Amino acid sequence: MLKITITETATDRRWTVQGRLVGPWVSELRTTWKRTHRSQDKRACIIDLNDVTFIDKSGERLLRAMSKKGAQLFAKGLYVKHVLEQMKTGGKRGLITLIVCLFAGLQTNAIVR
Questions:
Q1: Is 80 exposed, middle or buried (0-12, 13-18, 19+ CB in 10 A)?
Q2: Whole-prediction pTM
Q3: What distance in Å separates the CA atoms of residue 3 and residue 25, rounded to the nearest whole number?
Q4: Which neighbouring-strand residues pair with 72?
Q5: From the CB of residue 69, how many other CB atoms can be counted at a distance below 10 Å?
Q6: Which pLDDT score is estimated for 6?
Q7: Which one of 34, 89, 109, 110 is at 20 to 30 Å from 75 when CA atoms are compared?
Q8: CA distances from 45 to 9, 37, 88, 89 (A)
Q9: Taking all residues of the chain, what is their mean pLDDT, rounded to a whole number?
Q10: Is pLDDT above 90 for 99?
């Protein structure tokens, strides 16, 4: 289930998204975004993801597209913050960290022998 609440002020339009951003709910958010978001509008567009419990790959793609259109993605929870960070780095940062750790482990193992 997904709940989308949009509140508007003179300076911003805040989208509060609650629930799981998966499957048909991604389509619902996309449809609502296309219907409501106006790129000519000078107000900041803030996407509040604090109450999102899971995001699948299609949800990540939608959030990335919304971000490219100027939306500011906001989350406090560890899981969603991690997903957003992985989106920014394209997941490469985690892979690079893994490779560095493995390489360091190999070097340490070689020195101990």
A1: buried
A2: 0.74
A3: 9
A4: 46
A5: 11
A6: 92
A7: 34
A8: 11, 8, 18, 22
A9: 83
A10: no
> Tokens 């929870």 label which residue?
77
Share of the chain above pLDDT 70, in %: 75
Euclidean distance between CA atoms 52 and 42, whole angstroms: 27
> Whole-angstrom Cα distance, residue 93 to residue 88?
9
Separation in Å, CA 33 to CA 2, 7, 78, 100:
14, 13, 25, 40
| pLDDT category of residue 60 using cuts at 50, 70 and 90 | very high
Residue with tokens 């805040």: 14
pLDDT at 36 (0 to 100): 81
State the amino acid at position 22 in one-letter form: V
